[in-house]
Amino acid sequence: MKLYNGVLYVGFIITILGIYEFFLNDFIFKSYIRSDYLVTLSDVAYSSYRIRTFFYHPIVYANFLVILFCINNFVNKSTFSKMILNLLIISNLIMTQTRSAWISFILIVIILYIRNKFILNKNENKKRSINPYLKLALISLASIFLINLAFLFSDYFVEVYSYIMHRVFDLQSSYGAISFYQRFFAFVVIFHEVFMNIDFPHMIFGHGLGTSGAFMKTQQSYISGFATTDNTYLDILYDSGIVGLILIIWLHVFLVAKFVNKNASNFFICNYLIFIATSINLFFYSILGWDIIIFFYLLSLSFMLIEIKIMSKVTRSNIK
Q: Are the beta carbons of 97 and 88 closer than 8 angstroms?
């Protein structure tokens, strides 16, 4: 928990920097990034700047924001700071223009809602912790503030809405089409190579860790010299074969069974949502290229497995 508290503090700083970077309309840590990598992140491909703070890529920053959202809603004890940070997270998430993270964020909210509503059977008749008249006054003041804000920045909100819609349906522009076709091409060639074009042992056990990138580099793809599938599950299928993919599926089924358990702790739920948020995003990029995502992916998984082990020991000792 203390580790995640530290992440919250860092999260506040990063998201505020993200707002600043958006209005600056430039990468504030540009001087600390390799020049050759900055070329690949040229703003020419986008109609408006995609924020990333000190992360190399907007997609990775957006994935971190979804992780931060999970931590904030389970670790942060202050209702006020939780609300402020959630607003900062959502604002930054929009400004990254990252569709995969938007999908991940929406699915996380839905999963959490389903668990609370249908598994825990939580209803809205909770004991009130705030005076209802004070609550009404605060809502009224907040509404007045938001209406005035919307009036002052109406043109900006229209622009935000328009570029969200543009990113969601961006298959018409040259960049949006290339992004889609590159991923689809990777899907086709990996499936063809695994199931149609290689011998049986490779189909079952794969080619070895990291070989999918080298294979993709030999293919005549939409993006010349693109040495990745842009999909971690395709990497697993090619590198580790059907066995590796089955192990990943089994792990998810095993963890879902623990997640739906009514006795699961808030810390376990927090780590599960971090793990799932990252797992969803792995459909859209290769995790081996991003150390920070690997860290949270393995950290959340480790915390869950440790808690499962401890709980199983407690259960066995109680039986005895």
A: no
Q: How many angstroms separate the CA atoms of 285 and 278, rounded?
A: 10
Residue 22: closest CA among 54, 66, 53, 43: 53
Q: CA 89, 91, 92, 93: dihedral to nearest 10 degrees?
A: 80
Residue ranges with strand state E in 89-237: none
* CA-to-CA dists, residue 231 to 74, 173, 190, 246, angstroms: 29, 22, 11, 16
Burial 28-54 (b: 16+ CB within 10 A, else e): eeeeeeeeeeeeebeeeebeebbbbbe
Q: What is the DSSP letter of 172?
A: S
Tokens for 39, please give them.
């070329």
**Rounded Cα gap, residues 165 and 171, in angstroms:** 11
Instruction: Concatenate the DSSP letters of all residues of 154-167 into one string.
Output: HHHHHHHHHHHHHH
Do 85 and 8 contact (CB within 8 A), yes or no? yes
User: Could you give the CA distance from residue 79 to residue 104 in angstroms, rounded to a whole number?
Assistant: 24
Tell me if 121 is assigned to some domain: no
A 10 A CB-CB count for 222 gives 16
Q: CA 78, CA 80: separation in Å to the nearest integer?
A: 6
Model pTM score: 0.79
Angle at CA 318, nearest 5°, toward 315 and 320?
A: 115
In a domain, 287, yes or no: no
Structural domains in the chain (count):
1
The verdict on residue 149 lying in a domain is yes
DSSP state, 298?
H
The residue segments making up the domain with residue 160 are 128-169
Residue pLDDT, tens place only, 227-283: 677 788 989 988 888 999 999 999 999 999 999 888 889 999 999 999 999 999 898
The pLDDT-based confidence of 99 (bands split at 50, 70, 90) is confident
- Kindly tell me the sign of the dihedral angle through the C-alpha atoms of 223, 227, 233, 239: positive
Q: Report the Cα 236 to chain-centroid distance in Å.
A: 19
On whether residue 242 sits in a domain, the answer given is no
